[in-house]
Structure formats: C-alpha cells, structure tokens
Recover the amino acids of this structure.
C-alpha cells in the first residue's frame, strides 16, 4: 500500500528535481487557489530560467509575482497579467517573454496535455494576433485555429483536501486551473489544507483521482484576497 | 442625454429572459445584475468556474476561495455549481451560455471587436474575452459611443488588435442601440433626448438609419 502514499515530508522534497530552465504549470486564478507555499519554495530554491504557464502571474507581493523579484521567470504563458507593476516593467524591457493565451485556450491546452491529445482546433483567437502563424482549418463553414497541447516538467497546484494516495477535493472557485495543471505535469506536486487516510473520502465526491498526483504535502495558507468586495446588511 | 452607467446596465437587463444563463464582463455589464426584472430568474456564469453567482458577501461571509472573474469576493445563489476552468470554457465555447455582455475599445461594421490591447500602452491580456466572443452567439457589447476626444468607437475597420473577428451583432452605447448586419451598422434605438443627427455624427462606420428610430424605454 505504501506505493500509493504520495505524501512528502517537506517542501524541499516536494520540489526536488526542479531545475533551471524547466517548464512549470501552475494552478490558480488571480490569488485564489494558488499553490502559495510551493511558489515560495521555488523562490527559496532560486531556480531560474523558468517557463511558467498560469492564468495570471500573481501580484507584486503575492503568488507567482514573487518569482519576478530575482528574475526567476524567463517566459510567462498567461491570459491576464494586469495586476503587477514589476511584471509590466520586465515585459516592456524584454527581460520577460510573455505569451498571452486566451483563458479557455490555456485551460484546454493543459487539459489536452494531460489527456494525451497533441492539439485541438478552436475558433477562439481566429483572425486576431493569437491566431497569427497558426494553422487555420475550416469546419462547416467556420474557421478554426490549431492550438497545441501544453505539458510541464512540473506542475504545482493547490487543492482543499486529499487522501494520502492523492485523491483530491477542491473547494469552491479555488478549483479553477488546478485540475488541468496537475494532469499535464510530468511530476505533479499538490499542496492541500488537509490530508486524510485512504478510504475516508467518498469516491463519488473526488474531483481528481490520485493517479494524476505524484507528490502531496499539507500546508498552511495565507489566502490573500485581491479584491475584497462586501455589501452592507 | 447620454445614458449613465446605471441606465446602460438597465437597458442591458432588458435583453435578459427567464431561464437565461448569462456571462457578464467586468464593469458596466456586471451592473446589469442589479436590474434583473422582478419574477425573472437569470443564472450568472463567472468564467473562473462558477454558475450561479450571487451578490457580494456580507463582511462575515467573505471567503477567499469564492471569487468572480474580476477577482472580487462573491456569494453563490441556491442551485449554484462549481467547476474547473476547462469545464467553464467548454460551456462557453460550446455555445451553452445564452447571453454574453462585455466591454470594448472599438467595434466595426464587419462585426470585429477590439477590447484587450492598446499596443505600447495597455498590455494586460485578453483573459476570457476571446473565448467568450468566439463561443457565444448572442453577444452585447457595451461601451461609450465615442472617446473623450469625440473620436468614434464604431468604425468601418478596427484600428486596434482584434479580440474576435466577425462575431459581434449588437452594440449598446451611451447614445444608441445598434445592430450589425451585412457589413453595416443599423440604428435601432436612441438614448432618450439624443438626436439621430448626433448619433450619425459620432458613428464613423456606415450607419443605416431606419425611418423610425424609437427612444429607449428605460
């Protein structure tokens, strides 16, 4: 049974083997559902030349944004990068390469990467800068562009709960890109708020089976809120 | 008088139908949620993975794990569901969302839309906008009719990088409701107190003016 025990003892062990120049897929939307401690471990480790695919690149102080400070990111694949001044500066100076990718296309590229599908046709981006240089094919009178799947040397993700074998349950909109990022990483590392024993999760309620998860660690999370909006009673 | 933000939102909400699944973009489109007519049920889709978005939370209800596509804290209505980003865009790309409302910088009479980038100035990314305009059939673009300098945003050809090609059929501005058909803008309604002449003057692309252009009913 221990062959299915995915739990590692430390964040250092969780990211062992992550080397300069690798591609990392990261879950999260804004700062919601981000693998915040794994990101901090990459910062501590000092890995550089990384290509990172994630919907956003955090903010100046939180999430993937902290990897910009020491210029650890060489290339960012994201759909929206508007919350980060350092990001903008490095992009404008050419130090940081950016591949803007439509949000749904990015999710599907990761999904395809994890599902063994090398590419797919989508109408998203046809006739726009995103479609430039990509194969166009007509289906039933409409034009579609070929988008290729995305895979990572590592994926880093956050879930709410897991059993020791890596079966995962996400919580509310912290799910977002996490399941797809996990499936498309050669080594997928997931941090969670709670790890329970095998058999304690209801199989019907598992969002992502443990087959996709290589390493699992329990952490504590700041869960920074980007835009705290409230109504009065 | 040009429509206020609330009036724009009110006019958008007139396009809602009972049982519609609707995706509202950031800004004025989001305000339309405040004008859902009494007795009508509309389910709001947020592309980060939530169908059935509710109001902003009370202070004690705030949950960092529950946000909308604008990264604002929100709540869920009864009957809401949660899913991954891939599932979210499968329902968008697959044409399952009944109505999409989003903002833009420019629209042209070929149905092209530019909304995500001003080269050299604003490079924040398209987020889900490209998927939304490509996937939805029923789209309303909301924007001001002209820039602060009086330059028309309804053009014969967009000048900025496109978000989508040939996908826009309806534009609501602070001055008018305009459809796009066969490479022309068609003036359908005008804002209360705004003359046809004023709209013609501020529309750069070819505009067809029918004999009768009613005022909006707000």
């Amino acid at each position: 049974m221990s062959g299915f025990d995915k739990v590692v003892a430390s964040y250092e062990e969780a990211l062992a083997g992550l080397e300069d120049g690798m591609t990392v897929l990261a879950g999260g939307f804004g700062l919601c559902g981000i693998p915040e401690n794994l990101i901090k471990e990459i910062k501590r480790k000092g890995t550089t030349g990384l290509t990172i695919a994630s919907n956003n690149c955090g903010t100046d102080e939180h999430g993937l944004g902290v990897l910009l400070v020491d210029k650890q990111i060489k290339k960012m694949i994201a759909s929206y990068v508007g919350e980060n001044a350092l990001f903008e500066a490095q992009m404008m100076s050419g130090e940081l390469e950016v591949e803007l990718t439509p949000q749904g296309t990015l999710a599907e590229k990761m999904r395809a990467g994890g599902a063994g599908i090398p590419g797919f046709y989508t109408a998203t981006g046809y006739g726009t800068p995103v479609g430039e240089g990509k194969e166009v094919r007509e289906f039933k009178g409409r034009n579609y562009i070929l988008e290729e799947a995305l895979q990572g040397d590592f994926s880093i993700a956050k879930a709410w709960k897991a059993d020791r074998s890596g079966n995962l349950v996400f919580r509310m909109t912290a799910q977002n890109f996490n399941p797809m990022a996990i499936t498309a990483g050669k080594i997928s590392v997931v941090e969670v708020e709670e790890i329970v024993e095998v058999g304690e999760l209801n199989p019907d309620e598992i969002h992502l089976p443990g087959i996709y998860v290589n390493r699992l660690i329990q952490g504590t999370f700041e869960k920074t809120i980007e835009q705290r909006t409230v109504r009065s009673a | 008088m040009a429509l206020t933000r609330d009036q724009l939102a009110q006019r958008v909400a007139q396009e809602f139908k009972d049982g519609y699944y609707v995706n509202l973009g950031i800004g004025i489109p989001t305000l339309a949620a405040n004008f859902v007519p009494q007795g009508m049920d509309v389910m709001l889709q947020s592309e980060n993975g939530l169908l059935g978005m509710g109001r902003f939370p009370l202070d004690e209800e705030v949950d960092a794990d529950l946000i909308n596509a604008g990264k604002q804290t929100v709540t869920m209505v009864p009957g809401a569901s949660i899913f991954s980003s891939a599932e979210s865009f499968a329902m968008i790309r697959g044409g399952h969302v009944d109505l999409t409302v989003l903002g833009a910088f420019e629209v042209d009479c070929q149905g092209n839309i530019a909304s995500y980038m001003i080269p050299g100035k604003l490079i924040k990314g398209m987020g889900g906008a490209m998927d939304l305009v490509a996937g939805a059939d029923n789209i309303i673009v909301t924007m001001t009719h002209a820039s602060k300098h009086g330059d028309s945003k309804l053009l014969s050809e967009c000048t900025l990088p496109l978000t989508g090609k040939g996908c826009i059929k309806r534009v609501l501005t602070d001055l008018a409701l305009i459809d796009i058909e066969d490479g022309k803008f068609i003036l359908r309604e005008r804002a209360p107190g705004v003359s046809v002449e004023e709209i013609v003057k501020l529309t750069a692309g070819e505009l067809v003016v029918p004999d009768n252009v009613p005022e909006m009913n707000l």
Observations:
- DSSP finds five helices and 15 strands in chain B.
- The CA atoms of residues 146 and 152 of chain B lie 4 Å apart.
